[in-house]
Write a structure and sequence with these properties.
heterodimer, A: Rossmann fold, 10 helices, 34% helix, globular, disordered N terminus, B: 280 residues, MetI-like fold
Chain lengths: 264, 280
């Protein structure tokens, strides 16, 4: 196994929110990630790109320990959130996932009302009820740019919304928990271009208050929304740098080939 | 051209054959209902649940009590076991043992349950021949069915909903209680009613544990009293009591069948109702 090449891995300036150190991940005997060490800056959007099966989604799920759910998944190395290892013995996984929210590839609203979807997290984590809860729901839907479209139909079933609206509802549901980091796993892959555009706009707005890590198949999306981009190949972080650098002047030939569409 | 025609003919033949087999499945059900209704119709009157010597009121009440208590015992046990197997267990020897036990429980003949219930509940636990002992025995009988139908219902709930809940910082239990169980409930309830409906018609398990035949004091006063139940009533009327009009026996059988089919019907309607309101 060749080592990841530190000279092509940038350490971003400023405050680092999330950082991985020598992260290895296995599904049974299959090694999905090898020696991934990158630092993701606070209140910025970091994009992770790479061909299918390169490990970028597996990497994302390491960051909120959603891999714990998968049988046989095993992680070595460190993931530091504000400098503290989330894989240490004393980590409260529930508290971690409250701080590090996740938006999934396919919109997955609960088959409940729009209101109850957003209220789900606050009901678990806070004592807010009644008007106080209404306020959180409204604020979260505003932040997810969905309020105007749903304010008159909050009691309606969330699964009746369009795909793009459902995904923004899922974002609102995450924001209602008041996380510090939002992980997005190809959040637009099931959406049409208009809905995709709205979510991208939204991400840029959210960047003011949240650290965002997005996995995307769409290189244009990465170049449009992110400040930093990491290129994954076969479970390794090949190159990590400012987004312009990755797309205009990559250091590694494999990165160059990928962003120019020569493979993947 | 010849080949096409012959393929079409084969298709017709296959269709006719399959249709016939499917139709044959309906025949016994229809046959049983029609014969019972026709034979029992003359005896089927309000007198049956009135005062007469072969009044069905006590057996009907006993059957309903027995079924309800069986449900009360089997439901929490079965659903909890299913939740453990489906949501918590991660394989391993214990889980394989549990599954093996369930499969084997389902294969045990019902008369063996009866003897087991006699030994355990009637004698060892000193429940005596009683409503409680019978319900415990029947609960054991339906447990494998309740577990497997509940597990199936739980498995129908998409994993993406569990992940969404966990990713929002819900614990495993909160996820089960607030997302998985509510969405699996229609399936669980349906399975429960169907399982218990099956128990309602069983004779062997209650033969030694709950049922008795009495003309003088047919109603139970407590959980520890024996009860009259329809299947046993029918059994006794046909084998031991002389001079029972045949029509009365037919009517008894008809009432028993009506209760079981009625429960199934409720389950089917409930499933259609509750399913309709859920989509993902």
């Amino acid at each position: 196994m060749p080592d990841s090449q530190p000279e092509n891995i940038l350490r971003p300036p400023g405050e680092i929110k999330l950082e991985t150190k020598d992260l290895d991940m296995y599904y049974g005997n299959f090694q999905a990630l090898t020696n991934v060490s990158i630092a993701m800056p606070s209140r910025r959007i970091t994009a992770l790109i790479g061909p299918s099966g390169c490990g970028k989604s597996s990497f994302l799920r390491c960051l909120n320990r959603m891999n714990d759910v998968i049988e046989q998944a095993r992680v070595d190395g460190q993931v530091l959130l504000d400098g503290r290892d989330i894989y240490s013995e004393d980590t409260d996984v529930v508290a971690l996932r409250k701080r590090v929210g996740m938006v999934f590839q396919r919109p997955n609203p609960f088959p409940m009302s729009i209101y109850e979807n957003v209220a789900y997290g606050p009901r678990l984590h806070t004592t807010a009820r009644g008007a106080e809860l209404d306020e959180i729901v409204e604020r979260s839907l505003h932040a997810a740019a969905l309020w105007d479209e749903v304010k008159d139909k909050l009691p309606q079933t969330a699964t009746d919304l369009s795909g793009g609206q459902q995904q923004r509802l899922c974002i609102a549901r995450v924001l209602a928990v008041e996380p510090e980091v939002v992980l997005m796993d190809e959040p637009c892959s099931a959406l049409d271009p208009t809905a995709t555009f709205r979510i991208e706009e939204l991400m840029t707005e959210l960047m003011e208050n949240y650290t965002i890590v997005i996995v995307t198949h769409n290189m244009y999306q990465a170049s449009r929304v992110s400040q930093y981009t990491g290129f994954f190949l076969m479970g390794e972080m090949i190159e990590y740098n400012h987004t312009e650098q990755i797309f205009e002047n990559p250091a590694d030939k494999r990165t160059d080939d990928y962003v120019r569409g020569r493979f993947g | 051209m010849m080949r096409v025609v012959s393929a079409q003919n084969t298709e017709k033949l296959a269709f006719a054959g399959l249709w016939l087999c499917a139709a044959i499945v309906i025949l016994p059900v229809l046959g049983i209902i029609v014969v019972l209704a026709w034979r029992g119709a003359s005896a089927l009157s309000w007198d049956l649940i009135g005062g007469g010597p072969h009044s069905l009121l006590a057996p009907i009440v006993g059957t309903i009590l027995l079924v309800a208590l069986t449900g009360l015992i089997a439901a929490p046990l079965g659903v909890a076991a299913a939740v453990y197997l489906s949501e918590y267990s991660r394989g391993g020897t214990l889980v394989r043992l549990i599954r093996l036990a369930i499969v084997n429980l389902a294969g045990v003949p019902s008369v063996v349950y009866g003897l087991f219930g006699l030994a355990l509940f009637v004698v060892l636990f000193q429940f005596g021949r009683s409503l409680l002992a019978g319900a415990c025995t029947l609960a054991l009988l339906v447990l494998p069915l309740v577990i497997s139908t509940s597990e199936e219902a739980l498995r129908q709930v998409p994993g993406s909903l569990r992940h969404a809940s966990l990713a929002l910082g819900a614990s495993q239990w909160q996820t089960v209680r607030r997302v998985v169980l509510p969405n699996a409930l229609p399936g669980i309830i349906t399975g429960l009613i169907l399982s218990i409906g099956r128990a309602a018609g069983e004779t062997a398990p209650i033969l030694f544990t709950a049922a008795f035949y009495s003309l003088t004091d047919p109603f139970p006063n407590s959980l520890l009293d024996p009860i009259l139940v329809l299947p046993y009533q029918l059994f006794v009327m046909t084998t031991e009591v002389p001079n029972v009009a045949p029509a009365t026996k037919w009517a008894t059988a008809f009432v028993l069948l009506a209760i079981v089919l009625g429960m199934n019907l409720v389950a089917v309607i409930l499933r259609a109702r509750l399913r309709g309101s859920r989509r993902w």
